[in-house]
């Protein structure tokens, strides 16, 4: 999942990789439903993953630098005029480029 969010597109998985991963999940699920997998082992793995997630989440705290100043700012100059259109009563107005 983290690879999908990577800021560098070259580190993200390809559609083929994602397709193979989803396909393997589907095969595993079908095998599980047919009785081919050990249910106890699966439950143990899920519990272990959940315990790891909880532990990692509790250890990871967002720390702010004491000298940093966090302020919001306008990200795009084209959005500066959005406020005047936000309160418009015309709901069927045409947008002209």
Description:
With 97 residues, the protein is mostly helical. It has a domain at 1-59. Helices cover 46% and strands 0% of the residues. The protein is built from 3 helices and no strands. It has helices at residues 15-33, 39-59, 82-86. The longest helix is centred in the middle third of the chain and has 21 residues, at 39-59. It is extended and about 60 Å long. The model has no long low-confidence stretch (mean pLDDT 76).
What is the overall number of helices?
Answer: 3
Order of helices and strands: HHH
Q: What general outline do the C-alpha atoms trace?
A: extended
Instruction: Summarize the biggest pleated sheet.
Output: none
Structural category is mainly alpha
Binned, the helix content reads 40-55%
The oligomerization state is single chain
Low-confidence stretches: none
Mean pLDDT: 76
Number of strands: 0
The amount of beta strand, in percent, is: under 5%
- Rounded radius of gyration (Å): 24 Å
Instruction: Give the end-to-end Cα distance, rounded to a whole number of Å.
Output: 38 Å
Task: Give the SSE map.
Layout: H1 15-33, H2 39-59, H3 82-86
What's the short story on this structure?
This is Serine-threonine/tyrosine-protein kinase catalytic domain-containing protein. This protein has 97 residues and is mostly helical. Helix content is 46%, strand content 0%.
Features of this protein?
97 residues; mainly alpha
């Amino acid at each position: 999942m983290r690879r999908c969010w990577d800021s560098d597109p070259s580190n993200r998985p390809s559609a083929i990789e994602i397709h193979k991963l989803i396909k393997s999940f589907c095969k595993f699920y079908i095998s599980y439903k047919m009785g081919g997998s050990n249910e106890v082992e699966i439950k143990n793995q899920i519990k272990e993953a959940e315990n790891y997630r909880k532990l990692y989440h509790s250890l990871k705290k967002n720390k702010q630098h004491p000298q940093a100043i966090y302020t919001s700012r306008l990200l795009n100059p084209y959005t500066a005029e959005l406020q005047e259109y936000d309160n418009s009563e015309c709901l069927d107005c045409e947008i002209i480029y």
